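Record type: monomer structure entry
Structure origin: computed from sequence
Chain ID: A
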Amino acid sequence: MTALSDINLQIPKGELVSIVGPSGSGKSTLLNLIGGLDRPTAGMITLDGQRLDGLADDGLTAVRRDKLGFIFQFFNLLPSLSCLENVALPLHLRGWPRKKIEERARELIGLVKLDTRLDHLPDELSGGERQRVAIARALSVYPPILLADEPTGNLDTQTGIDILNLIRDLHATLGSTVLIVTHDMSVASTCQRTITIRDGQIVDDRKH
């Protein structure tokens, strides 16, 4: 079975885009291809002027590390680490000096308005707070591209609205290109552009 077919898509720098479609339509596969998590069997993917489809694993890892931030439906926080430590972890993996890491992690937690939760463990946070920590971690290197897969899917309605507003505020502040995969049309309608996928093909592409 072909997950995606005849996809021809360009996303300008700094755009806030939603990708919608029914379950199994291929929208998450498209996001994974753009993010270098999956490899295409044919075709070409260019990210920020660099082709991904021919890169070796080390090259893809470097692209994900330096140019991409990922936000998932499931927060993927390490339960034994505090908020500050979860946000700091990607920076430790980059070999940053400890003082610089702590400064950046505190700055990011302030950006998502969790200054009073620095030392809390994930189990001590609400779902919305955990998603804010996950967003702060995704922004650790201020990536030019932010990919979000159902970022409000596990949240109640009001918390989902708050998280979406936070992503939009960060988009305006940082100028990152943001792609949000969602099944919620109320989420999609707040973006600058919505791409609809059905049966592995783009069936609609419109700006709001």
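Annotation 1: The radius of gyration is 17 Å.
Annotation 2: The helical segments are 27-34, 57-67, 83-93, 98-111, 127-138, 157-174, 185-188.
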